[in-house]
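input
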Amino acid sequence: MKQLLLLSHLLLGLFIPASAQIDTINPTTSKLNLAAFKESKRTYAVFFEDSTGKRLTSADLWDRTVRFSTNASGQKIYQFDWRWYRKDTLISQVSATGLAPSLAPLSHNATYHNRGDRNFIFTGNTVTIPEASRKTAKDSTFKVVMTPPAFEFPMDLEILPLLPFKKVGQQFAIAFYEPGSPTSNYYKLTVTGKEDLPISGTTKVNCWLLQIDYGQQGATATFWIADQSREVLKMREYFRGRYRYKIKLY
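output
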């Protein structure tokens, strides 16, 4: 999974030029276009190709759902569900919650086929493993203070379209945290273009092109984000010597 590749990345400040004009985004800045954060269900096909465009794998399916509700304290929260299917088998499921409108995470519960569960809770910017999920001494002592405050990285496809796009050349620094990793990080994002993306027959959708720098040499991805609907329609990512694609089906 892409997220596992990011655990040891350098902090953004180490690889962004000091002279760059960068808009810093985290749950405390209130800069996201939250009008575009709506209840939704989207399915993506995910597959690999080599540098010549030869398909290397069959496609996995990702079902991703966002719903809104209210918690016991009367706070509005989001509920995020991500189900990963491979050859009709559910190989992982992530269920997460967070506060709205800040999108600060509250909980993360993951189940992996043949690997068990990994659960985390967020108290402010502090991440721990809930007592009922602690299986080892390491689990009991696990504690991460997110510096900077960060969004949940598994929700990148839902959060990146909320950036305040205005023009080609814009740069952002967005804070993400991969549950279980030792730190949160800023990641550099650049709006590299705007183009019409063919999606079916003669139908085209005008999209912003957003590139993320993962902080390792050659580790980047480009997202095609629909200007009107503000959703990721396509992603192309360099991943371990191959190219991974995520294509929205419906």
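quick obs: Residues 2-248 form one domain.
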